[in-house]
Amino acid sequence: LAALAGAWPQAELYVFADSVDAVEALAQAWRANAALAPLRVLVELGVARAGARTTAVAEAIADAIAATGGRLLIAGVATYEGAAAQPDPVRTEEVVSALLANVGDMFLRLRARVGGEAPLIVTAGGSVFFDKVIAALSPVVAKDSNARLVLRSGAIFFHDHGVYDRSLGAVDARNGFTVNGASVSARRLFRPALRIWAEVLSRPEPSLAICGMGMRDVSFDQGFPKPLMVHRAGHALAAPPKAEVIKLNDQHAFLSLQPGDDIAVGDVVEFGISHPCTCLDRYRVIFGVDGNGHVAHAFPTYFG
Questions:
Q1: Which residue of 13, 81, 203, 285 has the fewest CB atoms within a 10 Å radius of its CB?
Q2: Are 201 and 212 in contact (CB under 8 A)?
Q3: Superfamily the domain 2-153 falls into
């Protein structure tokens, strides 16, 4: 990281730390590279995944940053609330709310440490609880003229026909999405942007088609792909209403059908996906299409 920062000194770099050990490792690298600008570090709180679990641990992290002689700077507080989800929606509400309350409290503690002139960032994942993040943290941050609230909601830009679609229905149930002060439907306003196309390779049984798409090609950790349309000789047809992917091999999808469904070898099935994060990393290039379905862009992907 220090080598990269030295090669790209104009980059605006922030690092999360959820332990004193992490702070000490960063400080050691930055002390060894005196030409580097001080590194901005955010104290990370969390549940279920990474992040300090208690205020005492978070305070110790802040102490360690402050003890680096200026090589590291306290830059704010961070969390990822998506990992807090529980099987029980009521328990999820409790855990996410408690985490965000702790983040707001830690922000105020850090502000008291660094004074009013230092810029601070409060950042949360956004995930499918972005309404709760805004409701809990925006009022706290808005009172501070030198702070920013940042949502890291990368996957929501792609949305999907599975886990995010269902979760935005939950946002609507919480009455949690507003535009210009008016309550609107998050589920209707967000539109899935990612599709996978796969040829029908075989229809070996009346109730089964095999498509050329599998675990190497599409996400499956939070639900199988959903057939949306069937394309035949340049014409789009509605997908059979009960068609469903029931199994994936490495490069084959098992599409369950009704015996009379009009799907034939050579058709191309357009699928919606569930969970963009584990779909995007399967491709070095993702193609963007225009309103007529013609390829208009090519987007290279990069993963650390």
A1: 285
A2: yes
A3: Alanine racemase (3.20.20.10)
Taking 90 as the threshold, does the pLDDT of residue 286 lie above it?
yes
Which residue, among 157, 153, 224, has the nearest Cα to 194 in the 3D structure? 157
Q: Are 161 and 169 in contact (CB under 8 A)?
A: no
How do beta strands 147-151 and 208-211 pair?
Answer: unpaired
Helical spans, DSSP H, in the chain: 2-7, 20-31, 55-66, 89-114, 130-142, 163-173, 186-189, 277-280
- The chain-wide mean pLDDT, for the chain, equals 95
**What whole-number distance in Å separates Cα of residue 213 and Cα of residue 199?**
8
Full DSSP string of 233-247: TTEEEEPPTT-EEEE
d(CA 14, CA 58): 17
Residue from 249, 245, 252, 256 nearest 206 by CA: 256
Q: How confident is the model at residue 293 (pLDDT cuts 50, 70, 90)?
A: confident
**C-beta of residue 272 within 8 angstroms of C-beta of residue 222:** no
User: What is the rounded distance in angstroms from the CA atom of residue 80 to the CA atom of residue 127?
Assistant: 8
d(CA 39, CA 17): 12
Report the interhelical angle of 55-66 vs 89-114 (nearest 10°).
30
18-61 tens-digit pLDDT: 999 999 999 999 999 999 999 999 999 999 999 999 999 999 99
Query: What class has domain 195-286?
Result: mainly beta
- Tell whether the model's pLDDT for residue 154 goes beyond 80: no
For residue 85, is pLDDT > 90? no
Confidence of residue 75 (pLDDT cuts 50, 70, 90): very high
pTM of the model as a whole: 0.87
